[in-house]
Amino acid sequence: MKKSGKVKLVLPSMKYASAYLKALKEFAKIGEITALGVHVELKKIDDFKVYIKRARDNRNGFNLPKGRVPSTTYWAVVGNKIVGRVDIRHKLNKNLRVIGGHIGYTVVPSERQKGYGTQMLACALPIAKKLGIKNALVTCNATNIASKKIIEHNGGKLINKVKKDKILRLHYNIKL
């Protein structure tokens, strides 16, 4: 693992819009479309006004698409660089109890294996606690060894294995 800087989580803002577009291009190159988080197509800086409004609405539980729960999106920043994204779901629905859980995260491809995922989850846990979550459900695919290590490093205890759509998912509890 390469040495990494200290991660801070920030709410989406115009300050980091260019850095986030750069990160999204990196995700697109390897076909990871889930990196977007808030569902707004971002191709240019002007699109960020809609993205930021949607992120604020999601955080406040306004205008949520059917089947969605309130959630807060954070960008993981080191210096002025976006190294990842974290989503904290304020509560769980039926689908999130199987896929997703309370906290989801993704690290920019060029920033992987530097410890950022572990830091991102560590930063998200106190925020989840402030939201009233006492036991955070964090899930990952059984084949995602990096994510498994991130969760376990942050105190995750394996509580279940669930197979859905032919994919085995590991369910961890992190006591807050």
Topology:
Blueprint: E1 8-10, H1 17-29, H2 48-60, E2 71-78, E3 81-89, E4 103-107, H3 116-130, E5 135-141, H4 145-153, E6 157-164, E7 167-175
Antiparallel strand pairs: 1-2, 2-3, 3-4, 5-7, 6-7
The tally of beta strands, per DSSP, is: 7
Specify the number of helices: 4
CATH architecture: 3-Layer(aba) Sandwich
Roughly what fraction of the amino acids lie in strands? 25-35%
Q: Characterize the quaternary organization of these chains.
A: single chain
Q: Find the structural class using helix and strand composition.
A: alpha+beta
Largest sheet: 4 strands, antiparallel
The largest sheet has its strands arranged as: 1-2-3-4
Alpha carbon gyration radius: 15 Å
Name given to the CATH homologous superfamily: Gcn5-related N-acetyltransferase (GNAT)
Helix content: 25-40%
H and E string = EHHEEEHEHEE
How many individual domains?
Answer: 1
Outline type: globular
Low-confidence spans = none
Output the CATH topology: Aminopeptidase
CATH class: Alpha Beta
Distance between the termini: 27 Å
Q: Please tell me the overall pLDDT.
A: 91
Structure description:
There is one protein chain. By secondary structure, the protein is of the alpha+beta class. It has a single domain (8-131), classed as Aminopeptidase. 28% of the residues lie in helices and 28% in strands. The protein contains 4 helices and 7 strands, in the order βααβββαβαββ. It has helices at residues 17-29, 48-60, 116-130, 145-153, and strands at residues 8-10, 71-78, 81-89, 103-107, 135-141, 157-164, 167-175. Strands 1-2-3-4 form a 4-stranded antiparallel β-sheet, with helices on both faces. It has a 3-stranded antiparallel β-sheet with strand order 5-7-6. β6 and β7 (167-175) form a beta hairpin. The protein is globular and about 45 Å long.
